[in-house]
C-alpha cells in the first residue's frame, strides 16, 4: 500500500514540501479512516431506516408525507 | 552755399559760389555726409543693420539671429499650424478616443471619462482599499497528497479569514474533506471541533455534526470530481479564544443522493491561537488550489 503524503506550505518562508506521512501522522490517519467509515455507516443506516419506514407506511396505504413525516432527510 | 542734395539735403556749392569758398564748402558738405553715415560705422562680421527709431539714418549693428518662422506643421494632439501669416497652434482635448490635453482632477467620486486623477486622489483610493479590503494572503496549488497543511498563514495582521478551495480527488469515492487547526506545525487532533450542518440534495436533506476530531467541510469524490468547490470563513483563529467557522460548499456523495450543497458552522472548543490549518481526506489523494484571504477590519 502506498504511504499517504502530506503537502506542507509555510506562509512565512514560502517553502513547499511534499513528503510521506511520518509515524505520528500515519497513526492519526488510521483514526481518521475509522472515524470516516463510522460516520459514513451511520449516515447510510439513517438513510436506510428512513426508506424502510417510508416503505412500510406506503405498504399500509399511508402517505408518509401526508403525515408530515420527513422521509427524505437522513435523520430527524 | 545753398544747394541741398536729394534726398539727404547735404549742402553743395552753387554754380555762382566763389572758387575760394570751395574748401570751406566741401568741409561743410563732408561733415554733413559723415554725420549722416555715423551709424554705419562699427559692427562685426556677420552682423546686420537694424533701425533703432523712425529717424532717418538711425541704425545700429545687431546679430543676424532675427527673422520669422516660415512654417509650423502640427501633428496630433497639436492643432493649427501653417506656412504664412499669423500662425496659431493649439492642443486638442483628450478623450478615450484621442490623445490630447487632459484636465487633472482631485476626486475619488468622479465618473468622468475625460479627466485624469491626480496622485492625491489615487492615494486616497489606495489608502481606503488597503485599510478595508479583502487581501489575498496566499494561493497554493498542490497535487498527489492526502493531506495539505498550511503553516504561518494566520497572524495579528488580520482578524478573520476567508479560505477558498477547489479540489479534485483521485482516491476513494465519497471522501469527506476535513479540516484541523494547527499551531507550530502540529494539528489539533482532539475532539474539540464542535459543529453541525446539513447537506442539501435535490430531493433530500442530510444532517451531520457533533464533537469530532476535525471540522467536516464537504464531500469530495472521484465522481463529479470537479464539483468540489468550497469556502469557509474563520473568525479570530490567531487569537487565544474559540475559533469560529462558517462553511459552505458543493460536493458529491454516492451514499445518499449524489451532488449536494453543504453548509456547516461551529467552533473549536479550545482557547488556542492557531497559525495555520490542515485539509485532509481519510484516504486517496486530492489535488487543487487553496486560496487564503484576510479581512482587514
Structural class by SSE content of chain B: mainly beta
Taking the alpha carbons of the first and last residues of chain A, their distance comes to: 39 Å
Q: Let me know the average pLDDT of chain B.
A: 89
How helix-rich are the residues of chain A, as a percent range?
A: 40-55%
Q: Describe the largest sheet of chain A.
A: 2 strands, antiparallel
Question: Largest beta sheet of chain B, briefly?
Answer: 8 strands, antiparallel
Order of helices and strands of chain A: EEH
Got a strand count of chain A? 2
Strand content of chain A: 5-15%
Interface with most residues: A-B, 34 and 39 residues
CATH architecture label name of the largest domain in chain B: Sandwich
How much of the sequence lies in strands of chain B comes to 35-45%
- Low-pLDDT runs of chain A: none
The averaged pLDDT of chain A comes out at 83
Identify the quaternary structure here: heterodimer
* Unreliable segments of 5+ consecutive residues of chain B: none
Layout: helices, strands, pairs:
The complex is a heterodimer of chains A (76) and B (297).
Chain A: E1 5-10, E2 16-20, H1 23-59
Chain B: H1 22-36, E1 48-51, E2 59-62, E3 72-73, E4 78-82, E5 89-91, E6 103-105, E7 115-117, H2 119-132, E8 134-145, E9 147-151, E10 160-169, E11 175-183, E12 186-187, E13 193-201, E14 204-212, E15 215-220, E16 229-235, E17 244-253, E18 258-268, E19 276-280, E20 286-295
Parallel strand pairs in B: 6-7
Antiparallel strand pairs in B: 1-2, 3-4, 4-5, 8-20, 9-19, 10-16, 10-20, 11-12, 11-15, 11-19, 13-14, 13-18, 16-17, 17-18
What does this structure look like?
Chain A has a two-stranded antiparallel sheet with strand order 1-2. Chain A has one helix at 23-59; strands spanning 5-10, 16-20. The model of chain A has no long low-confidence stretch (mean pLDDT 83). Chain A has one domain. By secondary structure, chain A is of the alpha+beta class. Chain B folds into 2 domains: 72-130, no CATH class; 134-295, Jelly Rolls (Sandwich). Chain B contains 2 helices and 20 strands. In chain B, the strands form 5 sheets. Chain B has an 8-stranded antiparallel β-sheet, with no helix packed on it. In chain B, strands 9, 11, 12, 15 and 19 form a 5-stranded antiparallel β-sheet that branches. In chain B, strands 3-4-5 form a 3-stranded antiparallel β-sheet, with no helix packed on it. At the A-B interface, β1 and α1 of A face β8, β9, β11 and β14 of B. β1 of chain A pairs parallel with β9 of chain B, so a sheet runs across the interface.
Amino acid at each position: 500500500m502506498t504511504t499517504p503524503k502530506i503537502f506542507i506550505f509555510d506562509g512565512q518562508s514560502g517553502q513547499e514540501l511534499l513528503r510521506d506521512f511520518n509515524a505520528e501522522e500515519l497513526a492519526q490517519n488510521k483514526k481518521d479512516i475509522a472515524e470516516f467509515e463510522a460516520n459514513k455507516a451511520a449516515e447510510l443506516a439513517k438513510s436506510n431506516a428512513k426508506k424502510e419506514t417510508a416503505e412500510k407506511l406506503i405498504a399500509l396505504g399511508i402517505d408518509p408525507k401526508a403525515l408530515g413525516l420527513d422521509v427524505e432527510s437522513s435523520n430527524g | 552755399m545753398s544747394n541741398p542734395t536729394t534726398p539727404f539735403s547735404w549742402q553743395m556749392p552753387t554754380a555762382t559760389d566763389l572758387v575760394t569758398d570751395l574748401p570751406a564748402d566741401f568741409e561743410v558738405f563732408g561733415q554733413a555726409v559723415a554725420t549722416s553715415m555715423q551709424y554705419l560705422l562699427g559692427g562685426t562680421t556677420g552682423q546686420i543693420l537694424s533701425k533703432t527709431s523712425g529717424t532717418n539714418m538711425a541704425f545700429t549693428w545687431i546679430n543676424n539671429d532675427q527673422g520669422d518662422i516660415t512654417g509650423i506643421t502640427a501633428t496630433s494632439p497639436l492643432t493649427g499650424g501653417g506656412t504664412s501669416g499669423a500662425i496659431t497652434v493649439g492642443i486638442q482635448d483628450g478623450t478615450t478616443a484621442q490623445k490630447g490635453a487632459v484636465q487633472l482632477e482631485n476626486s475619488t467620486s468622479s465618473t468622468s471619462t475625460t479627466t485624469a486623477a491626480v496622485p492625491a486622489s489615487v492615494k486616497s483610493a489606495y489608502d481606503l482599499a488597503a485599510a478595508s479590503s479583502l487581501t489575498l494572503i496566499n494561493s497554493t496549488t498542490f497535487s498527489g497528497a492526502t493531506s495539505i497543511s498550511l503553516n504561518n498563514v494566520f497572524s495579528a495582521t488580520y482578524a478573520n479569514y476567508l479560505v477558498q478551495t477547489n479540489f479534485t480527488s483521485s482516491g476513494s469515492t465519497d471522501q469527506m474533506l476535513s479540516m484541523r487547526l494547527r499551531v507550530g506545525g502540529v494539528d489539533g487532533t482532539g475532539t474539540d471541533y464542535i459543529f453541525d450542518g446539513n447537506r442539501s440534495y435535490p430531493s433530500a436533506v442530510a444532517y451531520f455534526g457533533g464533537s469530532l476530531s476535525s471540522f467536516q467541510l464537504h464531500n469530495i469524490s472521484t465522481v463529479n470530481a470537479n464539483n468540489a468547490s468550497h469556502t469557509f470563513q474563520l473568525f479570530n483563529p490567531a487569537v487565544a479564544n474559540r475559533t469560529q467557522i462558517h462553511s459552505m460548499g458543493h460536493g458529491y456523495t454516492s451514499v445518499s443522493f449524489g451532488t449536494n450543497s453543504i453548509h456547516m458552522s461551529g467552533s473549536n472548543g479550545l482557547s488556542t491561537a492557531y497559525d495555520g490549518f490542515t485539509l485532509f481526506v481519510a484516504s486517496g489523494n486530492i489535488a487543487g488550489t487553496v486560496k487564503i484571504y484576510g479581512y482587514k477590519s
